[in-house]
Design goal:
Blueprint lengths: L15 H54 L16 E2 L5 E6 L11 H4 L12 E9 L2 E8 L7 E17 L6 E3 L2 E3 L13 E10 L14 E10 L9
Antiparallel strand pairs: 1-2, 2-3, 3-4, 4-5, 5-8, 6-7, 8-9
Amino acid sequence: MKSHIGPHRRERGFSLIELTIAMTLTLVIMGVACTLLARSLNIRTRANQNADSLADAQRALNIMSREIASAGFNLIDNGIVTGDTGTDVNGNSSLRIRSNLNKFLPSATSTARNGIGTAGSDQNEDVKYFILKANQTNLLVRHDEYIVPGGQSTVLANRLDSLRIHYYSQKLTYSSTGCDITGASLSEVSPSAAKYLVLAVCVQLRAVGTPGSPGYQPATNVLLVSDVSLRNSNLAIY
């Protein structure tokens, strides 16, 4: 019996041209994937920075509101030091307040209970808030004059755009537009006559992504506002 064996089958591999094309396509795909990943990480980083900026501003505003409300405690005025309160050349407000918090504190010294000015004992009784420009950003600073000899400053928030403080004789209504309040129902009064303050903190959020790309968010300003009643200025209860 004769057997018939057909021709051997030739096993073909990839040609050099095919390998070159495959490698080129692989590199292109990897490049696009890396670009998208890097862009996503940048967007996430900026979004986190924006969230941190807002959180810092909100915490700072809460601290200021709580301390300002106690201004004038055990004093004969509203506690605002008018000679060290005002507006700087950039339109940002500064505010200095005083209060005798140790008046009825048994553990405090007689000097601390009967006045303001004892370093180490009268902390939180003479405080100033102001904006300090540093490293291309605005810092919201709290300076405590008597926490230690010579005083001490603390940064409450960074990356602020502006701080505006408005002074009124009583509670009012207003609108918030841009980086400040508008349309106030009352005229402002001098800081020494104020019984009601409106604090307006503006935070500028940077753009996220690039125009036309997925997830793009343009730069915008967020205004945080707090109303503060100076409860030690014979202010009516609202």
